[in-house]
Specification:
Elements lengths: L8 E2 L15 H13 L5 E3 L11 H15 L5 E4 L5 H14 L3 E5 L8 H13 L5 E5 L1 H4 L5 H7 L5 E6 L4 H11 L6 E4 L5 H6 L4 E2 L8 H12 L3 H16 L8 H9 L16 H13 L7
Parallel strand pairs: 1-8, 2-3, 3-4, 4-5, 5-6, 6-7, 7-8
Helix pairs in contact: 1-2, 2-3, 3-4, 9-10, 11-12
Length: 301
């Protein structure tokens, strides 16, 4: 089980390789895990939005968590996504993750429906009570259209096993406010969920990041964190700027295909996204290759 001091650094929401039937591909998943851990990451997050959690039935979700836990073998903490539209669905996923040996769960706000603040509080409180695992809140208003407000976060942060929040919002002022209102809560941390704001989140006192780009460039993302912690703020900022072209490439295809396409181009064969999402066309892949080449992630002939 995750200790609060372990909630830090770079945690990639790993992509989920699938076979021709769109079931979890064990060999591919192990390959991704070894690649990111080799890059120095501080945790692994399976079944996040980059991991296409929404695409898998309960059997595949369980397999993804079990494979990850067994292959990581305690090298870093394992965070398992436990996100669904309903409270009941999240509780089922949370308990599955605990049984499978995850160190913590990450829970996105509901999608499609629009709960009010009281309903959101009750939702997260019920999930937290259903498991002994630490809970990392996941705010992604652009994708779910639901937002964890600053006032709601203040209430949720008082629940014992809710230990932090990943804020995937381009409203950086919200991240700053999240840090401000929770800075005196000993067992609560704020992480960047937008790869544009890793350095800035650290500068305001955040604990690290859940960064999709760390699937592709784990060493560079880790560089931002490690250099910042070591006091090399100039080096950390330089690494942050170097990362941005890769983050900008998200828009080249339908989310979350681009990180998978990047890894395939780098020779880490992990297959296709889950349909209806499709791989980028050849012209777009050439643009992605150019970015990867300029970042030193692939060699071009």
């Amino acid at each position: 089980m995750l200790k609060i001091e372990e909630l830090k650094g770079v945690i990639p929401p790993i992509v989920t390789p699938v076979d021709e039937n769109e079931n979890v591909d064990e060999a591919g998943l192990k390959k991704v895990i070894d690649y990111v851990i080799g890059g120095g990451v501080h945790g692994v997050f399976v079944l996040g939005s980059n991991g296409e959690f929404y695409a898998f039935d309960s059997e595949n979700q369980r397999r993804a968590v079990e494979i990850t836990v067994n292959h990581v073998k305690g090298r870093v903490p394992v965070y398992a996504g436990a996100s669904a539209i309903t409270t009941k669905g999240c509780i089922k996923s949370a308990q599955m993750a605990e049984e499978a040996g995850a160190d913590a769960i990450t829970v996105l706000t509901p999608m499609f429906i629009k709960p009010n603040e009281k309903e959101l509080y009750n939702h997260y409180e019920a999930i937290a009570k259903s498991t002994s695992l630490p809970v990392l809140l996941y705010n992604n208003p652009e994708k779910t259209t639901n937002n964890i407000s600053v006032s709601l976060l203040q209430k949720l942060a008082k629940i014992d096993n809710i230990i932090g929040i990943k804020n995937t919002s381009l409203d950086f002022a919200q991240t700053v406010e999240f840090i401000r209102v929770t800075k005196d809560i000993k067992n609560f941390k704020v992480l960047s969920g937008s790869d544009y704001f890793i350095y800035a989140t650290l500068a305001y006192g955040g604990a690290g990041c859940v960064a999709g780009t760390a699937n592709v460039a784990p060493g560079l993302v880790v560089d931002i964190y490690n250099k910042y912690i070591a006091g090399d703020h100039e080096g950390a900022l330089e690494a942050q700027f170097k990362l941005l072209p890769l983050r900008n490439a998200y828009n080249y295809g339908t989310f979350p295909v681009v990180m998978k396409d990047c890894m395939n181009l780098m020779g880490i064969e992990i297959g296709n996204p889950v349909k209806p999402v499709e791989r980028c066309d050849e012209e777009t892949l050439e643009r992605i290759k150019k970015i990867l080449s300029e970042m030193g992630l692939i060699k071009t002939v």
